[in-house]
């Protein structure tokens, strides 16, 4: 598994982590490596996502060992929330997750709704 900082400019201030299985991480690395080397946003993305990435191993009890700098960045203490996101996971501070989850449920933010088209569940 590889863990790195979560990136989403629409979610400024939400300091979570992304956790990728190795095959998915390798796909992301290939995609990012193909970005233009003189594009300012591509440079920032490479520095932020790739520069903060770290391989994680499990200990003898099956716990994932996260680097201190990333635990500190995401304010992960004793209680965290692991959220499945198809090809990756998100790691959240439990209190931050509860606050954001409540905000999302009670909010009326429809930004990007048109872009997802006629998806049905």
Written account of the structure:
The protein is of the alpha+beta class and 121 residues long. The chain has one domain: Transcriptional regulator MraZ domain (Chemotaxis protein chec, 3-Layer(aba) Sandwich), CATH 3.40.1550. It is built from four helices and five strands; from the N terminus they run ββααβαββα. Strands 3-1-2-5-4 form a five-stranded antiparallel sheet. A hairpin with a 2-residue loop joins strand 4 and strand 5. The longest helix is centred in the last third of the chain and has 13 residues. The protein is globular and about 40 Å long.
Key structural traits:
121 residues; 5 strands; Chemotaxis protein chec; 5-stranded antiparallel sheet; alpha+beta; 4 helices
Q: What are the SSEs and their pairings?
A:
Blueprint: E1 2-5, E2 17-20, H1 22-33, H2 40-50, E3 54-55, H3 68-73, E4 80-85, E5 88-93, H4 94-106
Antiparallel strand pairs: 1-2, 1-3, 2-5, 4-5
């Amino acid at each position: 598994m590889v863990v790195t900082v979560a990136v989403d400019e629409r979610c400024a201030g939400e300091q979570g982590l992304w956790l990728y299985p190795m095959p998915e991480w390798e796909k992301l690395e290939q995609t990012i490596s193909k970005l233009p080397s003189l594009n300012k946003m591509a440079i920032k993305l490479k520095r932020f996502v790739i520069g903060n990435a770290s391989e994680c191993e499990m200990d003898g009890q099956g716990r994932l060992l996260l680097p201190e700098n990333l635990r500190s960045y995401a304010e992960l203490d004793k209680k965290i929330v692991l959220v499945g996101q198809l090809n990756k996971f998100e790691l959240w501070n439990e209190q931050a997750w509860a606050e954001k989850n409540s905000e999302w449920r009670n909010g009326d933010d429809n930004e990007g709704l048109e872009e997802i088209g006629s998806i049905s569940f």
